[in-house]
């Protein structure tokens, strides 16, 4: 199945132009032109009653009809029936379960699947295998699933908000902003224990939100914003924030912070513990639930800002609210995993190919796909150079970078992506 293209502004303008042309052809003669005078008998009745001039309500009706038709096409394309959707969800749940089992069994020490099952059910006697499974690998695998799901959902939503499928928390500078805020708390030594657990996500949220606002402001020119400016602004802000993070570490004069800060710049799940799972799990559940209730407004944005406004959506306020929510989810994920890039870029594309563009279907599939993808990526990071643990952000960048270049090439050639 091919990917479902997002309706673009050009298509919307074309629909409006066609509607306008049809109305224009029916318009009566203007005041300076001769009015309807005596007609010959052969004139016929077709020219006797000129069509009335279009009014503002008529134009609004035309725009609403065009946007509704575009939304219907978006819902139909690639969505498939309920049976297909349930089949995709069931397949992803099975893939996630298998990836979790593989993540628990494989690593620098290989554990038989039977011992993994006994450790999870509590029937195994205390042993090194049981300690590895329950205290080391299971928190890491669960954290990978949570972070992967959160980043994939945020990427899906950002692509709808800015109507650009190159959008991603990493490319738009959100992850870099969150990393800068978290490193600042680390260097300053704010709080301790539970206070740090709250202070670090809070600082990451502020950094992520400020980065997103800056990127959005730089990308806009008047009332317009192109995808090229958005990506360029995001990359520029990301580099600036990475340099600022390095400067903070250098000025702190404590070399031991460089090792800890590498976690934030490269991403990793090695610090996963049971006490680090509660906050990201709660934020993910609440964030996905909130976004599912906003699935219809997100669908409206796909047909263009003017069409969404005609259909009753306050686009400016809605975008601001969802940007804040996306920044919060990203900040919490980055505060426990560092900056893991490109998961929010690749997974939404695969999800659209499977179930189409409607967000009520797309968001759960993206969450399951992101969870599976990051669990498998972390498994590869632990096993490729075992016993060396490669930062998972390195592997996602190695796969996501070429994917991003492929998307840019497809867009440059005019192909839908």
Give the tags:
417 residues, mainly alpha, two-stranded antiparallel ribbon, 16 helices, 2 strands, 71% helix
Question: How would you describe what is shown here?
Answer:
With 417 residues, the chain is mostly helical. Helices cover 71% and strands 1% of the residues. The protein contains 16 helices and two strands. A two-stranded antiparallel sheet has the order 1-2. Helix 1 packs across helix 2, helix 5 crosses helix 15 and helix 7 packs antiparallel against helix 8.
What share of the residues lie within helices?
over 70%
Main beta sheet strand tally, sense and closure: 2 strands, antiparallel
Secondary-structure-based class equals mainly alpha
Give the termini distance in whole angstroms.
Answer: 12 Å
Shape: globular
Topology pattern, helix = H, strand = E? HHHHHHHEEHHHHHHHHH
Mean pLDDT metric: 78
- Computed CA radius of gyration, to the nearest angstrom: 26 Å
Instruction: Give the neighbour order of strands across the main sheet.
Output: 1-2
Strand content: under 5%
Annotation, overall tally of beta strands: 2
List segments where confidence is low: pLDDT < 50 over at least 5 consecutive residues. 1-59, 73-78
């Amino acid at each position: 199945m091919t990917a479902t293209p997002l309706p673009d502004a050009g298509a919307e303008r074309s629909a409006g132009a066609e509607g306008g042309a049809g109305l224009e052809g029916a318009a009566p003669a203007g005041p300076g032109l001769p009015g309807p005078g005596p007609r010959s008998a052969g004139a016929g009745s077709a020219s006797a009653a000129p069509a009335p001039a279009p009014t503002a309500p008529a134009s609004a009706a035309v725009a609403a009809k065009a946007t509704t038709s575009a939304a219907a096409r978006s819902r139909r394309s690639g969505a498939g029936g309920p049976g297909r959707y349930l089949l995709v969800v069931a397949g992803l749940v099975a893939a996630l379960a298998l990836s979790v089992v593989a993540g628990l069994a494989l690593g620098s020490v290989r554990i038989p699947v039977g011992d993994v099952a006994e450790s999870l059910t509590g029937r195994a006697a205390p042993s090194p295998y049981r300690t590895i499974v329950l205290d080391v690998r299971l928190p890491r695998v669960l954290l990978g699933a949570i972070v992967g799901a959160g980043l994939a959902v945020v990427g899906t939503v950002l692509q709808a908000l800015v109507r650009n499928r190159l959008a991603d928390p990493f490319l738009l500078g959100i992850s870099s902003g969150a990393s800068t805020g978290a490193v600042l708390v680390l260097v300053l030594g704010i709080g301790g224990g539970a206070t740090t657990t709250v202070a670090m996500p809070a600082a990451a949220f502020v950094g992520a939100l400020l980065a997103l606002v800056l990127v959005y402001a730089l990308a806009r020119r008047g009332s317009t914003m192109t995808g090229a400016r958005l990506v360029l602004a995001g990359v520029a802000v990301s580099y600036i924030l990475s340099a600022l993070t390095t400067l903070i570490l250098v000025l702190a004069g404590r070399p031991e912070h460089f090792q800890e800060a590498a976690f934030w710049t490269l991403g990793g799940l090695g610090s996963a513990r049971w006490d680090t799972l509660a906050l990201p799990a709660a934020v993910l559940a609440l964030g996905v639930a909130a976004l599912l209730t906003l699935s219809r407004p997100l669908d409206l944005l796909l047909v263009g800002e003017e069409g969404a406004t005609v259909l009753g959506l306050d686009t400016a306020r809605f975008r601001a609210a969802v940007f804040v929510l996306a920044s919060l989810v990203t900040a919490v994920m980055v505060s426990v995993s560092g900056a893991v890039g490109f998961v929010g870029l690749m997974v939404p594309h695969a999800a659209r190919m499977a179930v189409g563009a409607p967000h009520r279907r797309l968001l759960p599939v993206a969450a399951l796909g992101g969870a599976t993808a990051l669990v498998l990526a972390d498994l590869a990071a632990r096993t490729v150079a075992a016993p060396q643990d490669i930062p998972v952000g390195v592997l996602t960048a190695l796969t996501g970078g070429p994917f991003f270049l492929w998307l840019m090439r497809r867009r440059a050639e005019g192909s839908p992506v």
